[in-house]
Structure formats: C-alpha cells, structure tokens
Amino acid sequence: MPTRDRLPGIVGVGLFCLCMAACGGGSNGVGPPPPPPPPNPSFELSLSTGNIALTQGGPGQILQVSIVAQNGFTGTVSVTLTGVTAGVTVAPNSLSVTSTSPGSFTLSASGTAEVSQQPVSVNAVSGTLNVDKSIQLTVTGTVPPDPFHPVGGSMVHGFYDESRQLLFATNLGLNELDVISGVDFSIQARVPVPQPLGIDQMVDGKTLVIGTVAQELITFDEDTLAVVQHPFSAVGTGGFTLFFPTVVALANGKVIVIGQEEGIDSSDIVDGGQYLYVWDSNANTFTQLEPTGNNPWETDSLARSADHKWAVFAGDQFYLYSSDSDSLTSAPFNTVNPPDNTFGVRGYAINSNGSEIAVVSASQVTFLNNSLAVLGTTPIPGAFQTARTAVQFSADGSKLYLQYDLPLEIEEIDATAYTALGYLSATVVPDDDNLERLLATDSQGRAYFGIDGGVRFVDLTQSPVPNGPNGNLQVPNCPVLDDSLPLNTSMRQTLVTTFTGVSVYVGAQAAPLLNGGTAISVPASSTVGPVDVVCIDSFGDTAVYADGVSYGVDPIGFSANLLPPTGNPPAYLFGFGFSGTTFEVPSINIGGQPATKVTDLPLGPGVIQEESMRIPNGSPGEAPVISVSSSAGSGTLSSAASYYSSPTIIPATGLLQLLYDSHRSLLYALKGTEIDVLDPATLQWQSPLAFPTAATGAYNTMALTPDGSKLVVAGSSGLAPQFIVLDPDNVSPPSVVTYSGNSDVFGSIAITEFNTVVVPGNPGLVLNLSTSTFTSLPYFGGQVIRASADGSHLYSAALNDSSGEVASIDPSTYAVRSEGFGEMFWTDLAVSADGSQFAAVDAPPDATGDIVGLFDPALQYLNSNAYPDFSPPDDTGVLGVTFSPGGKVLVVPLGDSIEIWDAARGTLRARLMTPEELHVLVYPEGAIAPMLVLDSTGQTIYAVSASGLTVLKLPQPLDQIPSMQWPQARSHNSKQPEFHGLIASRMAAMHSKPSK
Q1: Of 211, 777, 979, 992, which one is least surrounded by beta carbons within 10 A?
Q2: What is the pLDDT of residues 921-938, one digit of tens each?
Q3: Where exactly are the structural domains of the chain?
Q4: What are the DSSP calls for 807-836, one per residue?
Q5: H-assigned helices in 171-226
C-alpha cells in the first residue's frame, strides 16, 4: 500500500503511547484510569409552601425556609425574596440559615397593598453558590366602600343637614333638588325645582333657600318638600335682566344674593355676578346692597359662618358682614391678601363662629380674624383657580379644604399651624367635567362632590397624600380595560402600560394585577350592566372609572317614546355591550322588525354606547320590545316606546301658516292668494277663502279675532302695510285695508279683545277693525307677537336681536313693558289660552334643539327646559311652538320630532317622531308664521311637512299625556356644558348630531 495510507494509523498509535506514559500507565503504557475527584459541597433549597395568600390588612403568613446539605456542605446560606408586591412587607429582610438551623419569613399586606397575583423569587446565596426557587404570591382585597353614586344631570351646590343626615343637592341639569341619604347615599327624593343653583339653610333649621339661573329665589321645606317661588326683578346697568344664582342665609332673616347680569359671563364663573342684593325674608323686601357707587364689581362666591352670624365676600374690597349689627366691615385686598394681591382673591371661607377667615389667592392662603387682621399665611401647591373651585372649613375649624379641579382633588390646610398637609383625590376618571364641585362636608369628616352626573364620596379622616413637587397632585392611575364583556366570564387582559402600586376593583371585586402589572385578571359577573372600576394607591387614595366595564348587553334608553307606524324616522338607542368587539355593529330589532342604518355614534369616554338607526314600521298601539345582540350577548328594553295611530299626510304645496278655528272646528292654511279650509272630521279641503282682487300685496301671516268673527291676513303692497279682512262664514265680503302713512312694520300680528290688530314695527300699527282706522304704536323690539285666546294678554319677543327682549303690551292702552336677556336669540313665542304664562323659544337653524324660556305675565323668567340625557334632539327648529289647551305642556316642533315639555317643570314629557320632515324654520326672512297648530282638545296635531299637511292623532289629549320616565344619566353621558350664565350654557346644551 502506498506509504501515505499508513501514516494516520502510525501517528494515532504513537499519540496513544505518549498519553499512557504521561498518565502513569504501566511499563508497557497500559493501566486503569484514576478515580474522579470528590464532588463539590452544595445544598438544596426547601420551602414550606409554594403559595402564599395574603389579605389587605390581614394577619401575616409564614414561609419556612430550610436547606439540605449535600457533599459535606457546612456553610451558611443568605436567603432573600425579590419581586414582592407593593405594600407587602417581609420580615426579616433576609435570613441566614444552615442545614441544622432553618428560618422563616413573615409576609403581611398593608391595608393598601397592591391586589395582585405574581411569582416571588426566593434567592439563596452562599459564596459562589446560588439557588433560586419561586412561590406564587396572591394579595386579595377587602371590598372598598362605593365612592361614586350616579344621580343624573349636573349637581352644582349642596347643603348637608346634620340633624336629618341628608344631602340636598341642586341639580341644574334636571331642574330638580336631589335629596340624598348621608347613610347609604340612596336618593330619597327628586323634587322639581326650576333652574336651581346655589343653596343654603335658613336659621330655622328646616327651610332651604335656593338661588336660581332665573329671576327668582326658591324656598324649600325640608319636612314637607314644599317648594315656594319668590320672583324678583332687577336690571343691571347694561340694561339686561339679573339672575340670582348664589345665596347665603343669615341669623337676622336676611339672605345675601349675588345678582348676575344675563349675557355677562362673570369670568367663566356660574356663581358669580356684578351685584349683591339682600332679601329680607321677614319683610319680603329685595334691595341692592352693592355696588353703592360707580366702581366695577364682581363677586364670585359667598361664604358664611355656621352660626349664620357672619358672611364674607369680595367685590371692590374684601367685606365682612355681621348679622348682629346688620353692617359691613371692609379692608383693601392688599391687606387680606399680602403682600400685594398680585393674582387676586380666588376664594374664601369663614369658620363656624366667625373667629377665623381664610382668603385664598393663586399661591397662598391668608388667615384673618374677624377684625380682618392677618393671623398667618401658608403657600399652597399649584395655582388655585377661581372658576369651579370651592373653599370650606372643617366642622371643628381645624382644617381648611381647597377644591382643585381637572382632576378633582381636595387640598388640606392646617388652620392652626398654617401649613399645607397634603391632598386626597375625588376624581372620576377620565376627569373632564367642567361642573365638578365640592358640594358639602359633614361633621364626620366626609366630603360630597358633584361630578359626572353623580355624587363622589371622600373620607377626609384618612391621612392625605403628601404634596408633590411643583404643585403636582398626582391621582391614582387607573387602567382602561376592555369595556364590554360576556356574562359569567372572567378575562385576562394585557395592559398597554405597566401598573404598579395600585389595587384595582371591578364591580367591587378584586381584579388582581398579573406579571408585575403588565396584565390584569378581570373577574366574572352574572349581573347585566355597567360597573365601576375603583383604583386605590399605596396611600389609600382613590380614583373611580365610573362604568369602566360592562357585562352582557344592557339597553337602557331610547330617544323617542311616540313612534309613527310608517315613515321610518331616526332614533337613538343607549346602553352597554352593543359592541363586544372593536367596530362591531349590533343587531337591533324593534317589535321583531330589524332597525335599518344602524350606526355606532361615539360618545367619548366611558363604556356607554349610542346607536343611531331608522325605526321600522309598526302597528298602531303596539309597545314594541327593543332587542339587541352582539358578541357580548343579548338584551331587551321594554316600555320605552309605542306606536301612535296612523298619521295622515294630505298633499299640499305653498302653505305659509296654519291656524285652528275652535269656533267652527276648521283648520285654515294660508297661501299666497287664498286661505285653504280643511274639515278635520273628513280631512277634506272645503272651498277656500279667496282674497279680493284689491289684495295686491305679499302676505305671510294671519290671525283670528277672539270672537271668531273676522280672519285678518297681513302683508304689504310695496312699502305700504296691507290687511285683508275676511268673514270665515262668507256672510260679509272681504275687504282690503291699506295704511297710507310711513311705517316699517314687520313680524306677525295679534288681535286683542277689543278687535284691534296689533302689528310690531318702527313705528308699529294698531288697526281698529270696527272703524278700519290706524293708530301708530311706539316702537318696541319684538318682531313676533302673540295673544291669548281671549285677546286679553299680548306678548312679544325680539327676533334677530341681541337684546333678547320680551315684552307685554296692554291691549287697551298699548303701553309696553319689556325685559332684556342679553345675547338671547328668540325665534318663536307661545301664549297660554288664558294668558297666565308665555314661552319664548330659541331654536336657530344652525343648532339642534331649543332653549325654552318660561315667563309669567310680569315678564319674570321663571324656568328653562332641561333635556334628559337619553332623548337628545337631532334636528333644527320649526315655527309653531304652542301651549296645550290646559296650559300644562308646551309643544315645540323640530324637523323630525315634536317635543312635549312639562310647562311647570321644564322637563321633557315625550318625544314624538314624525313620519316625514316638518317644515324647517325659514330664516331670517319671513320667520314668523306658525307651521304647527293643535285642535281645541289638544289631541290632534296639524303640521306643515315635506309633502303637504301631516295630521297626527295622539293617544290622549296633550294635557293628559304622562311624563316619560327617562332613565337617569350614567356617568360620562351627560353633555351639560360649563355654564357662563344662561346663554352659553343652554346654547352649548343643544346637541349636535351627524347627518341623518
């Protein structure tokens, strides 16, 4: 074989021999291998359990640790635990154990330990030896008290009655006073109160006095729940009417009241105003207190002592009022807010007996005695704002509470040592409610806040959270969870952000954080509907995500309760669980028929959902069940709506105004050259009332004399006002009366009990129908004028006018009294049959819905309407607002619906959807003639609609229609705005909707 083939083998033998020699083999290089080295000493870690379960604030649990020595190990092992949940203590911090001396840890959870489930590492170290094991640590929590209680609407101020343990909260969003138990926070009563805002208790201990966003004060008997209205009129220097939103009651029976000039927004402060008045409840007098000179004045709040003997307020100076002497003491702002009042006075409070006063600026609190001498000052964290904030002493006077907002928090100040102690959260997440307020505190150290349509409770006896640097008052961070879950199913959810140091509860069940706060276990529920998510940090501070999770499908509100059997108008369904997955569109059936064009409408934060749809056809009298299904389950809503009798749509064109003749039971429809006459019994057109050939003008409005003998049509021929006088019975021939002078008349007409036609203008005119002669009427601002059925009362309202003027005209002398409501933009007017009330309506074509101002004959603005959260308007106004025959309800037409408002309460009784679009407001020209009227019983509605005349027969007369029990608002659904006086607030409350 070639040499190269042998070389590997020869080399291998040589290497083997060399190795044997080197390893001490026999003489011939072959022998047994040496014994292996002895094994290194080591140990095994032994634990008494692999699971430790702790309860917040409960007893500790023991983890025994021992080691098993191996290979002669005799060393000492140091044992520590890592990855322990926040709030869990381990004692001792470490152990030193040997094989003959085991040890044990005691693990315990504080009352605010983080509720979680996660592995904890047990690390054992001895020199270079390191042995690890893990245990599962579970921390469970006791159910926390429920800190948030939904009420609905917008609560702005409150008074807590210690003797009755009741919280009385003014609810401007629902036109009511809410009576809430201080024991279990249940709602004891909802009492209708018009436009309530400020509140205080009179010295008798049983009567509440309430300030309003209207021209009146309210007194309320806490025992009988009786409400008494006290109208007062006052006008500011700008010529606009004053409202009286804020009150404090003193021991001498006097009530100091802030007067707010309507149309001036008081620096974004709903409570503030430019005047102070005093109501003497004993003498029932109402007099101006301040300003007494020409100095500009702005008072943002009022405060009094618990004994009712002292009150403080800021204006051009800082004032202290004594009820004993009925006198004022004042001091310059530089004195009460040293050193130089740079940022102005932002708030103030006075303790129970008037011995200490706190004045709060942007950066500090100054404490004064009742001689207005400075006792001390303390800096405060963060700038304290004026708007939406409150200042209160504790019942014992030892602490001062400052409300911060967005997010809502309460800062505690030591009122003796003059130091800032820290803060507590009162937030409801996400905190974006511009009306959040500290309503009241009680002697037990509890605070009640109005926020997101509910009452948030805070226990002020717990230790506050230390103030953070740079004024940062950090509220507990609450995770946003998947919000729609099926019933009876727990769910593990991955969190976008890691959460540590916080305990989470979902519907009062612990929701443990997992994997170091990167995931969470959401508990199951067998109850349909939304629940709150409550988060508590290591300080015990609490945040609430109201309705943070919902289970199953829970429809709770439908926007309309009276539906046409045909026409398929739009409607809106509110509830929870409609979209179990992202972008899911639920299946909705109404009375077994599928709704069409179902679209999810975003409502913003919170889990409540809104679905728009078209209503399917139904059977008259049917009360359909609304059913919804999605991947989260299915649910039903009953008794939310019913179909009314089949409407009739009579084809017609060119209709300019409707008028119902109760004397003949006929309907008149004005056209350009005639008046069409409809027989309501047969719904057939009769022979029209033709205009005479001499009628050459353009006509847009008509009115009937109170006795029904004459029908007058008004218009103009060129620049000359012209009137057609017709006999509805055609006994007398029609005539034409033309004014020969100069008169710029405009608007509608009204006929008095003296058979005179009143026409607004510059100047206006009075046409005497008996003599066919004219009299000039002094100019007044109203373009729309209406009369009571008997012609004994005439009222007008200004259109296209920033004065917001309403007026009363004497039907015999034509003397005019008026009130101005700045920036109000009235579009229509209605007068009750007896003239005892009238309503001006603001329903412009650039907004949905309407503002209703309800007035008495003295032009007192007594109430406004308040929309329920689950019946928002979605169309613009239609002319023809009218009172029912009995005056109990006000009918306001919109493009696709007719709103039926309770005239006493300003609340929505019903929303009737129309089979086709009604005639929308012509604006601004010609916007005077009613497009909707009622018959004499108030059971049939006639309205000009897209294709003619729509006739709607109601189930019962309007005065007898029961009020729909709209569901109360869930959190984050309320669309109430921040109030800048009446105008901006109510205009902003008009809901915008997508195109239908």
Answers
A1: 992
A2: 665 455 578 999 999 999
A3: 42-140, 484-551, 554-643, 648-988
A4: EEE-TTT--EEEE--TT----EEEE-TTSS
A5: none
DSSP 491: E
How much is the pLDDT for 302?
Answer: 96
What topology is assigned to 42-140 in CATH?
A: Immunoglobulin-like (2.60.40)
Listed in order, strand segments (DSSP E) in 141-186 are: 148-150, 155-161, 166-171, 176-181
Confirm if 584 and 631 have CB atoms less than 8 A apart.
yes
Q: What token pair was written down for 787?
A: 């009369």
Determine the residue type at 347. G
With a pLDDT cut of 90, the percent of the chain lying above it is 73
**Strand pairing category for 51-55 and 129-140:** parallel
Whole-number pLDDT of residue 25: 43
φ and ψ at residue 334, rounded to 5 degrees: -60, -25
pLDDT at 469: 79
Give the CA distances from residue 438 to residues 409, 451, 645, in Å, rounded to whole numbers and listed in that order: 9, 9, 49
- pLDDT, residue 811, reads 95
Query: By percentage, how much of the chain surpasses pLDDT 70?
Result: 91
CATH class, domain 484-551, is mainly beta
**Domain at 648-988, CATH class:** mainly beta
E strands of 48-115, at which residues?
51-55, 61-70, 77-82, 88-91, 94-97, 103-109
d(CA 800, CA 780): 14
d(CA 376, CA 369): 10
Q: Which residues pair with 379 in a beta bridge?
A: 364
Q: Give the pair of three-digit tokens for residue 164.
A: 């009755």
What whole-number distance in Å separates Cα of residue 532 and Cα of residue 546?
5
pLDDT in tens, 1-42: 333 333 333 333 333 333 343 444 444 555 677 777 778 899
Maximum alpha-carbon separation in the chain: 158
Please give the order of strands across the beta sheet that includes 784-787. 784-787, 794-797, 806-809, 816-819
Whether 718 contacts 709, CB under 8 Å = no
- CB count within 10 Å of CB 73 equals 18
| Measured CA distances, 667 to 492, 664, 717 (Å) | 66, 9, 26
Give me the numbers of helices (H) and strands (E) for the chain, helices first please.
3, 85
Domains 42-140 and 648-988 share a fold: no
Cβ atoms within 10 A of the Cβ of 370, count? 19
Q: What confidence score (pLDDT) does residue 974 get?
A: 36
Confirm if 420 and 467 have CB atoms less than 8 A apart: yes
- Give the number of other CB atoms < 10 A from CB of residue 373: 10
CB 364 within 8 A of CB 382: no
Average pLDDT over all residues of the chain: 89
Spell out the alpha helix ranges (H) of 296-344: 333-336
pLDDT over 80 at 544, yes or no: yes
Contact call for residues 318 and 300 (beta carbons, < 8 A): no
User: DSSP 3-state helix, strand, coil percentages of the chain (rounded to 5)?
Assistant: 5, 45, 50
Encoded tokens for 454: 């509910």
Spatial contact of 472 and 465, defined as CB atoms under 8 Å apart: no
pLDDT interval class at 760 (50, 70, 90): confident
Region 443-447: mean pLDDT is 93
Q: Judging by beta carbons within 10 Å of its beta carbon (0-12, 13-18, 19+), is residue 64 exposed, middle or buried?
A: middle
Alpha carbon distance 121, 132 (integer Å): 7
CATH entry 2.60.40.10 includes domain 554-643: yes
The distance in angstroms from the start CA to the end CA of the chain is: 101
DSSP class of residue 984 equals H
Strands of the 364-368 sheet, one edge to the other: 347-350, 357-360, 364-368, 374-379
The Cα 514–Cα 117 span in angstroms is: 5
